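[INFO] parsing input record for SLC13 family permease
[DEBUG] input buffer:
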Amino acid sequence: MVFVFALIFVALVMFATEPVPIDITAIGVMVALLLVEPLSVVAADVGLFADPLIVLSDPERGISAVERGISGFANPATITVLAMFVLSAGVQRTGIIQIAGRKIAAITRDSESRQLGATIGFVSPISGFINNTAAVAILLPMVTDLAHEGNTSPSKLLLPLSYASMFGGMLTLIGTSTNILASEIAGRLGQQYPTLDLHSFSMFEFTELGLVLTVVGTAYLMTVGRWLTPARIKPDEDLTEEFEMGEYLTEVVVREDSPVVGRTVRGAMGEFDFDVDLIQLIRDDEVFLEPLGQKTIRAGDVFAIRTDRDTLVEVSDAEGLDLLPEVDVDEAELEAANERQNLVEVVVAPGAQLVGETLATSEFRQQFDATVLALRRGGDVFRKRMDHVPLRVGDTLLVQGSPESLKRLDRDRNFIVVGEIERPDFRESKIPVALGIVAAVVGLAAIGLLPIVTAALAGSLSMVGTGCLRPPEVYEAVQWDVIFLLAGVIPLGIAMEQTGGAALIADLVVLAAASLPTVAVLGLLYVVTALLTNVISNNASVVLMVPVAVTVAIELGASAFSFVLAVTFAASTAFMTPVGYQTNLFVYGPGGYRFTDYIRVGAPLQLVFAVATTLGIAFFFGV
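[DEBUG] output buffer:
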């Protein structure tokens, strides 16, 4: 038990601080659990331990540590979440959500109230049936465009978008991976304790409670939340103004005596020891974008460049460049190469392979023939020395490139292009098919004809068989970091149960709340889980807290199902930090938020939900 608690402490610290991605931490936890028993046998043999440590194995039942240690990979919850990513991608590829978004935009126009109401009212029901992280990723460009077209700050809409997706995730079993994982753990514990009223969740078992909380949450966001949500980003049409690039963008002309005349751009830039990006080349009446590397520099060439004023002076003196006076390099100037969009915001997506990489190590410019002008992380904007900043999920890049380059970025699963650009590859003819497949999965699981894992896998295969998805897109659709996170933390929950750690925590909770009524203990468990989830992963919170909730219910003689439901809902609603839930982190950069904004808007909402969820569970399910 001491070893397991020490491992949990280390894992919590690493989840909170993220020295490595949380999925790597989870796999590290799994490996530690697999190693401890064989290593402790060796330690006992040489006299260091009195007895070997038994953490996962059950010798009496013939269950090995390896069997339980890697059980997360074969767990029905893990496979179901994987299949739901594929189903969500099948719906996304049809373009139905973008089509619906355009129709909504035509209605909301320039009314912030209508924009906010449409955002919440649209994302909540969608998130009940496709993964809510995927829903936010799909709707992010639509909501940002909605804000710009209506002259509203995107900050006023993006945080509500994230919160509303969490509301929707509580409507059905498949709304979020947290629900699926909690359902599997509840089903396993129900078999372990057959006298309890505990079972896996059905598809719509808690929908009525989810609807109540969605209404409560919507009312909050439309009133108090709207007042508390800051307008961090000004509702400017010009992206260069939004990123405050005025002091960092300018144009220079190449003098006849410049040492770079006659050299290629790549050759000249390769010898620069300055923080400078050449954005575009203007020669006579032509404007050239990346790739510029092979262009031979001529006297009289005009370059639009990104640098700071001090560096500009050094570059001008060393390389024979003259500053062009009275030139404003704004979005219109950067899009002068043609009449199509050249300047966009790009967000690093959840599960992106280049998280932890830099623009330099990922060879961003070479790969996409595009230039990053600025990087925004929450309220901080990097406008120089960006090439060596490790990228994180939610980082927003201001990118300039040709329309073809932007299309490549839009097709790359590592990024989400903020703002609608031309997307001709939607499979609109497959809309009825994709919706029919999702409806069949939900229906078959709801009536109990098929287990949810079987229905979801069959639905995923149907997406490919009907042409809604191409085979390679199946693997691109899965957020593998989430899958490995689940596989890694599931054995930790088993270890807590096996060693008695869950029972000890439950004893402490019951002892601390001895004089409280059962419904208050239920609320306390919700609050503890919610606070934990705001610091670490929601899935890790469920794995740690569901066994505790069951043990507390047993000791109080209360409803185990109600206590598990409180933990599940608390883990699905992390409003107070950007790291508590993936959708919060996803809107952190595009909204220009500060860490304190989540506490300012989310803490009152968390308190409202603590009361509403506790009373709702007591009313609908009893305690």
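[INFO] The longest strand covers residues 370-377.
[INFO] shutting down worker
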